Amino acid sequence: MIALLAVSLMLQGSTPTVGDTVWLSRTVGVPAGYAVRATDWEPADPIELLGRGKVVMTGDSARITYPVVLWRPGQHTIDPPGPLLLGPGGTVDSLPTARVNVEVRSVLPRVSPDSLSPQPRASLVTRRVVSLFPVLGLWLVAAILLLPLHLWWRRRGKPARTTTPPLRPEALTAPLARWADAGEYRAVANVATARLRAAMEQRVASAHPGLDTERVLAEIAAARPEWPLRELGELLRALDDVRFGLVPSSEALRLSQATTEMRDRLLREAA
User: Is the pTM higher than 0.85?
Assistant: First the structure.
């Protein structure tokens, strides 16, 4: 063990209170060629270290300081660790701890021992009364609020089926040939489809224009199985292809003439 030239331990400041920062300082002598390092310290409760130890060299002595705080009033015995001496050639030596006594005052005022006497533990409070009136009242309020709403909803009835307005007379006499010459092929296909679908609805009410092609064919097959379903389906699908631009538009006028023949045929067979 290297001999110490001077060892002192002191507490800076007046008598601290709980929560104050206390600086614990220790001065040691340092032989020539040696360096001093503060040892890591993890004090136990109620002491809390606020930062790493600091070393300040003054001539041939070193001052090691640790900032701490104490969380319990009374007399405390603290053992700060001894510093490390780093010698030439990488040798390391540690100095022994130096015990210090610190008194910490409480921040609470002094009171008489009889002023705050402990009270006995309170027992559990049990509720022995069980009532169904809150639940019944809740059901009654809910019935009063929801019954008028339910009756109003029932009186609304079922929603009416949305029907497509009937085809206007001018659409039945539209100049399809002139439209086709003008390049309005989709308009020709739309009018031709409307003419055929109107004739189908006259004989089968469920095949209204609000349905798509496949649904209309299903309704016709169920109500009129004797009709030429294969030819009718091919004609309606071909018209849909023209209306949506899936086939050459030059077929629109020919399909329109075919729908006129199919309409007359369906009306004649259904008579």
Answer: no
